[in-house]
Specification:
This protein is mainly β and 237 residues long. It is 5% helix and 43% strand. The chain has one domain: Lipocalin (Beta Barrel). It has one helix spanning 118-129; strands spanning 51-52, 58-62, 68-74, 80-95, 98-113, 141-151, 161-169, 172-185, 188-192, 196-199, 223-234.
C-alpha cells in the first residue's frame, strides 16, 4: 500500500467537489534525450465540461484501460516530445457527488513516447526509465493521493474544481494542486484536467536542468506538462 506523508489516512478531509487524478507521472519529459526531432511539443486534448449527479454514492475503481496520463517536455530551443503513462490501479470514494477519498498508482515502467518511431522511440523510452530520469528499476511505481478538493472560479483553463493531494515520484512525495473538470452520470465518474505543469527538479529529476548549470543549447525545461483523463466503474453502492 502506498503511504504519503501529506495525506491523513485515518481522517481524510471531506472533498467539496470531485476530484481527479494524476499523476505522473508522472509523466514526463523529454525532448532532451533526443536531438532527432525539431517538432513543436505535442498539443493535448481539451477537457470535458462539469456535470455532476449529486445522488451518486459508492466506491469507484479506476478503469485503467480507459484512463490515460499524457506528458510533454521540451528543450530551451523549443523542440519537444510527448507520450503517455498508464495507471496500475486506483479508486475513488464518492458520497452524494462528493469525493471523500481516493488514490492512483502509476506504472512507471509503462512510460511511452508517442511522437517517435523505431530506434529513436526505443532510445528515448529507455532513457526516461534510467537513472537520469525516473529510475524505474528502483522506483517502479508513482502515485497520487487525494487530500481535498474545492470549487475553482475564473480559471483561464476553464477548470471548475481543484484537487489538493500528494504526488509520489522517485520515492519523493510532494504536495500538489491539480485543476480539473468532472462528470458523474450513469454510474460512472469521468475526470479530466486541462494541461498543467509540475517542476521536475522537486522530484529529483535534474538531468540537463538549469539548476545544475546546463548550457542553454542543451537545456531541458524544468517544467513537465501533464494532462489526465480518468474513467471509473462502480465497485459498490
Amino acid at each position: 500500500m502506498l503511504r504519503f506523508p501529506f495525506y491523513n489516512h485515518h481522517n481524510p478531509i471531506l472533498m467539496k467537489k470531485q476530484f481527479i487524478l494524476l499523476l505522473l507521472p508522472v509523466a514526463i519529459l523529454f525532448a532532451a534525450c533526443q536531438d532527432t526531432s525539431t517538432s513543436e511539443t505535442p498539443a493535448m486534448t481539451e477537457p470535458t465540461t462539469t456535470v455532476i449527479d449529486t445522488t451518486t454514492t459508492g466506491q469507484f475503481a479506476i478503469n485503467t484501460e480507459a484512463s490515460v496520463i499524457e506528458w510533454a517536455g521540451s528543450k530551451a530551443t523549443g523542440s519537444g516530445h510527448g507520450g503517455t503513462i498508464k495507471l496500475q490501479s486506483g479508486e475513488l470514494s464518492v458520497f452524494k457527488g462528493n469525493i471523500n477519498g481516493g488514490k492512483m498508482v502509476l506504472d512507471m515502467n509503462s512510460i511511452t513516447v508517442t511522437d517517435l518511431e523505431g530506434q529513436d522511440k526505443a532510445d528515448l523510452e529507455g532513457h526516461l526509465k534510467d537513472s537520469d530520469f525516473f529510475e524505474v528499476g528502483k522506483f517502479p511505481i508513482g502515485g497520487f493521493e487525494f487530500g481535498s478538493t474545492m470549487p475553482l472560479e475564473g480559471d483561464a483553463s476553464g477548470a471548475k474544481h481543484v484537487a489538493a493531494g500528494s504526488l509520489l515520484l522517485k520515492g519523493i512525495a510532494k504536495p500538489i494542486r491539480i485543476p480539473f473538470n468532472m462528470r458523474i452520470a450513469d454510474g460512472k465518474v469521468t475526470v479530466e484536467t486541462p494541461e498543467f505543469s509540475i517542476i521536475r527538479t522537486e522530484w529529483g529529476l535534474q538531468y540537463k536542468s538549469g539548476v545544475i548549470g546546463t548550457v542553454k543549447d542543451e537545456l531541458i525545461s524544468d517544467q513537465i506538462k501533464l494532462k489526465i483523463k480518468l474513467e471509473t466503474t462502480v465497485t459498490g453502492q
